[in-house]
Amino acid sequence: MRQEDPVATHAAHAAPDAGTRAMRRAIELAARGLGSTSPNPVVGCVITDAAGTIVGEGWHERAGGPHAEVHALRAAGAAARGGTAYVTLEPCNHTGRTGPCAQALIEAGIARVVYAVSDPNPQASGGGATLRAAGIDTTAGLLADEAEAGNAAWLTSVRLGRPYILWKYAATLDGRIAAADGTSRWISSPESRADVHRLRAEADAVVVGSGTLRADDPHLAVRGIEGADQPLRVVLDTHATIRPTARVLDEAAPTLIAVAEDADTRHLAGVELARLPHDKYGISVDALLAELHRRGVRSVLLEGGPTLAGAFVAAGAVDKVVGYLAPVLLGAGPAALADAGIGTLTDALRLDITETVRIGTDIRITAVPTAPSVPTALKEH
Predict the structure, then answer these.
(1) What is the pLDDT of residues 338-368, one digit of tens each?
(2) Is 272 a catalytic residue?
(3) What global pTM score does this model have?
(4) Exactly one of 4, 28, 57, 69 is catalytic; which is it?
(5) Is 370 in a helix, a strand, or coil?
(6) Which of 136, 152, 131, 147 has the alpha carbon at shortest distance from 44?
């Protein structure tokens, strides 16, 4: 009797099957829509023919345009009939600015549909049931965790009614974001700073506070990424201290200044304002996120300083942290995070590190809360 090579057997068992490879490709395609599809989700689709060969690919490129399934079906043409569609999100079941994708798959003669994540939006869900009712073999859950991670912003917005928040900071190894005299340019490497522009390009809005505005006069627009949509630049400026000459007020990207309801804004004629309630941290984080969500913002890159970051952590509104750690020591100067309402170690926001990457001379660490973040105010009751 022939004995199997244990190494070859292990490799065969470990190698992903064709369906898994197709769904992973769909997840890669979906990521191409980051920053341009809101308030819609990012979605990718791969279609294979009856023999399992990929005959069509597509992704949702921008809000109002064709969905991923439609792009993939157009690419596949007649080869889609009798084939399988791999989709990162349950095909939609409603008519909005485009028609229902479930019906498009049925009309194309698709024999099987595999989707990763069920649609939590009650207005669009039910596509799976429609497909099954039409006699199409339909399966859910393949690579669900990977697809959820890629669509975290939209899923968070549907489930929590607020945008997804990614807090980005750059610091020395001892946690300082500036020296004692306030100088901070440049702690991180050129490669890290270029990577931040990628994060901006993937976000719907970039948020800073008035302290960062006064200290750095940041521009906050995306540079160096061809074809990127410019995110909304948002400044939290409780008392409307921003100067009309601030760089964020140019025409490179849209800008919104969030001020207190009673702020004097006579010097800001022509600037788009959001008058919001404020608390001890400044502009209410909850009120700001509700306003941004109303405007269609589904993902926020928080680039503000330690005070603003502390306010978001205290509000339980940080979903991911990306820290760029530079091989530099200062020993004094402001820390990356200011008061977040955490008074004891047992209340610390614990994180799971999901990625560690060398970028230039720096280390980029990505981490997510180990459990849903709870606002400090709720912990105190």
Answers:
(1) 988 888 898 889 999 999 999 999 999 999 9
(2) no
(3) 0.86
(4) 69
(5) coil
(6) 147
